[in-house]
């Protein structure tokens, strides 16, 4: 009896002791980390490996620990809202623009006095708070449009009575439509399965349409009304959206009714394998083309075309260039971690090693003056973006989807587009949903 | 001995109790509190009373997903239990290879829901491709897809429970009935089913609560497509919570309602089937 008693006491005390001891262990180890550490919650899955390598290099050079975790595009907000409350919260995260700032302003540190801000070429791109502080700094400029395979296009232009003779003639929607429809009709001659890659409408794979393509009608409406944000949208350029969307789904390698099963990767590989001539995507998609096994598209044949929708004056329209990637530093983190994070970011965008990784591994076009002209990414899509940006006859379309009210709006928009493609919803359903939900989601945002 | 156990009871129970408090009781009550709050991150919550609950009921998605869930649960529970019981009866006959069959039927249960959902998504889509459609185009396909997926996954598990029950039916009772001239159907209805009632209670409870709480499979098989028509309650709560940073409180209120609903349904079902159980 006595032995058992002793045993049980002993057991209980060991348990208590082990709890207490592990507690102590943490404290001592954190005291050693006087230098602070960095935790970056990355937004771009395609850049994950590159960021991990940068983090490792930085740790090797300075001894400061850098942790990089990646959350994909459409789950970023939810992972951020969970992570930010943890004791070990991200010190570096990103927001997608004004809407993101409204959600996360409580956590954004003022970056006005950082070197990073002073390096920014166009200060108007940064996100400013009402108090004049700088809370988000863009770290990459991106562009998207219609990516086309020049080899297939040249083959088409060489055909008898082609609707155009070169890509220069394709500078508005009507020409694009004529060319595309003619190509689709003669797809056997061109050796393709369709002109456009699959309009991926599977849930979570529809961001190219409910965000990027939807930017165009919103851009034209803002421009017409001369505003930078609207809480109630008329969707007056909705028919222009329909023009291009119809063209995409009806001249594709995939039947419209099957689009609900297609992913972004599907369409990227269709393009890489030469099965289609065009896809809509941005310069970040280069990896998605070049890394496909059996890829037949030559680097010099990969070009960009602006997305024409039939809006007036679109002959001068350029690519959609802008950013939805703004660095923010977590105000709630320890000061030493904040300092460490600023040092890390500045190292990435100013040291030779950091800049090399940014331009060559990440393939970013950086908006900072620490980069010389020679230090720009060499992949064909980034080069095209730079070419369009340098062309003074073209007006870039700004990224207004950063003013889209919420993820729910985008998801529901994507879902009704799927219904439209499958033939279960009408175009009026799409228009109604966009107008109604834009207003109701903005009302919900403003109520908070 | 008994005395000593009593004396040290608190010490032994303490670690578990602490864990239970930290991992269950505190989050639970915190969650209930949050359902009355407006919040973006849970540390910065502001009390708003019943606003979230009112918003939850005004929301069509919630009501629709409730209806969808109820219909799904009824159909799935019937299909799963009838099939599992039939298989169990078949596999307790003296047939060769029963062990192999039992293992095979049980195996789907070992695969995680998300993975199963993606696998079945490809299977359904490749079948539907010959009809030029996908599972995301019509709520009907999504509904039956979910039924097939859930049956495939749960039948094996329920079957094992039924087999255990069937093996406990005393053979003397069956023999007595046989001698009295009862047909096989009568034996099943009057002897076997009353005797396996405890298994039926467990299986119904498990399948009802699993069907109501279904999330992973729903997320990966249909994701609610088309237009949230196949979103079940758990998925709707998830979408509300994360769809807009300002609707987290509403999502939380829906989650509390969901908890009450599942609790009431499961307990009612337990109460009624328990009453049917017989003592051996």
Question: What does this 3D model show about the protein?
Answer:
The complex is a heterodimer of chains A (448) and B (280). Chain A folds into two domains: 35-141 and 323-371, Periplasmic binding protein-like II (D-Maltodextrin-Binding Protein, domain 2); 144-321 and 394-446, D-Maltodextrin-Binding Protein, domain 2, CATH 3.40.190. In chain A, 47% of the residues lie in helices and 12% in strands. Chain A contains 18 helices and twelve strands. Chain A has helices at residues 2-32, 48-62, 76-83, 98-104, 115-119, 150-157, 173-185, 187-190, 207-213, 215-225, 238-250, 264-272, 286-290, 335-350, 352-361, 380-390, 407-422, 427-446, and strands at residues 38-42, 66-70, 92-95, 127-128, 134-138, 142-149, 194-196, 276-282, 302-305, 317-322, 326-329, 395-397. Chain B is mostly helical and 280 residues long. Chain B has helices at 2-34, 51-58, 60-91, 98-106, 113-128, 139-167, 171-179, 184-195, 197-212, 216-221, 233-243, 248-276; strands at residues 37-39, 45-47. Chain B has a two-stranded antiparallel ribbon. In chain B, β1 and β2 form a beta hairpin.
State the main characteristics.
heterodimer, A: 448 residues, alpha/beta, D-Maltodextrin-Binding Protein, domain 2, 2 domains, six-stranded mixed sheet, four-stranded antiparallel sheet, 12 strands, B: 280 residues, mainly alpha, MetI-like fold, two-stranded antiparallel ribbon, 2 strands, 75% helix
Q: Indicate the multimeric state.
A: heterodimer
| Helix/sheet category of chain A | alpha/beta
The proportion of residues in beta strands of chain A is: 5-15%
Q: Which sheet architecture does the biggest sheet of chain A show?
A: 6 strands, mixed
Q: Write the CATH architecture name of the largest domain in chain A.
A: 3-Layer(aba) Sandwich
**Biggest chain pair interface:** A-B, 43 and 38 residues
Secondary-structure element order of chain A, N to C: HEHEHEHHEEEHHHEHHHHEHEEEHHHEHH
Radius of gyration of chain B: 23 Å
Q: Uncertain runs of chain A with pLDDT below 50, 5 residues or more?
A: 13-32
The whole-number mean of residue pLDDT values of chain A reads: 88
Helicity level of chain A: 40-55%
Number of strands of chain B: 2
Strand order of the largest sheet of chain B: 1-2
Helix and strand pattern of chain B:
HEEHHHHHHHHHHH
Largest sheet of chain B: 2 strands, antiparallel
Distance, first to last CA of chain B: 33 Å
Q: What is the CATH topology assignment of the largest domain in chain B?
A: MetI-like fold
